[in-house]
Amino acid sequence: MHEMSIAMEVVEIATAAIPADMAGKRVERVRLRVGRLSAVVPESLRFCYDVAVRGTPLADAVLVIEEIPVTARCDDCGHQWTADQPHFICPRCNSGAVRILSGQELEVVAIEIGDS
Ligand SMILES: [Zn+2]
Question: Is this model's pTM higher than 0.90 or not?
């Protein structure tokens, strides 16, 4: 279950992102961007995250996962499309010269810290 190591990494990155003068404040949300090609199952990641945050400054923080669809572009005809599944052949001209523009993301985009 590689989601566990990802969850621990997310917790590590998010913890490191808490500014020093905010230490001790409650982190309310951790925003994560997960591409559909990143091979991460959001539900398992959420489950692992709940385990990984125990005893950390993020213990009460909700994980918000934004799923990024796969966007691809054909280098031959310029056609651009989005898909839930990776599609490596251009649907318009059948070219294999396909460039993946998005969908591989796996990043912590923001943490939100409460006032209390
Ligand atoms: Zn094409």
Answer: no
Per-residue model confidence as pLDDT tens digits over 32-64:
999 988 889 999 999 999 999 999 999 999 999
Q: How far apart are CA 111 and CA 17, in angstroms?
A: 8
Percent of the chain with pLDDT over 70: 95
- 113: its two tokens: 């810290």
Q: How far is the CA of 89 from the centre of ligand 1 (A)?
A: 8
Taking the centre of ligand 1 as the mean of its atom positions, its distance from the CA of residue 70, in whole angstroms, is 16
DSSP state at residue 105? -
Q: What share of the chain is helix, strand, coil (3-state, %, to 5)?
A: 25, 35, 45
How many angstroms is it from 2 CA to the middle of ligand 1? Answer: 35
- Which residues are found with C-beta within 5 Å of the ion, ligand 1? 74, 76-77, 79, 90, 92-93, 95
